[in-house]
Amino acid sequence: MELTLTPMTAQELDRLRGPLVQGYAEDLVAHRGMTPEAALERSSSQIRESLPAGVATERALLRVGRVGDTEVGWIWATLPAVATPNQAWIDNIEVHDEHRGRGYARRMIQLIEAELAQLGVPELGLNVFGSNTVAIGLYRSLGFEVTSQQMAKRIDPAG
């Protein structure tokens, strides 16, 4: 069976929001050196601000990836804004653990690209943590290119 994308329901977002907030907070701890408490607060507030009306948030494309009746993952893209009038953005993409390694992330990106193309959006961007080499390889294989790069170094307070 082929993977399809369907609009996310409010109930699905309610179920997926907790793991999204927690996963992003864990990334902030691991990659930005934040305390778990500060990371959880930042993660919660950023997602709340980005999706103020949940699945009805203007410019948010929240889609669930399905193979038949089975949910295999989901993708969240944001349509262009005034600051970036030609670029949509992948805010998050997830393939559930038990469905990884089957090409579903690739297919979800291809399908969201097709939807964006129908809307006349000419470019798609995303962020990825530098240590996520599997995702980086996927994105490169789909034609994404590095357009900016941030670097950080932890400083030992003892000198």
TrEMBL record:
Q: Which domain of life is it from?
A: Bacteria
| Official protein name in the record | N-acetyltransferase domain-containing protein
Describe the location of the N-acetyltransferase domain by residue ranges.
Answer: 18-159
Record-level Gene Ontology MF annotations:
acyltransferase activity, transferring groups other than amino-acyl groups
PANTHER family per record = ACETYLTRANSFERASE, N-ACETYLTRANSFERASE DOMAIN-CONTAINING PROTEIN
Matching InterPro entries:
Acyl_CoA_acyltransferase, GNAT_dom, YpeA/RimI_acetyltransf
Top-level taxonomy: Bacteria, Bacillati, Actinomycetota, Actinomycetes, Micromonosporales
Report keywords, A-Z: Acyltransferase, Transferase
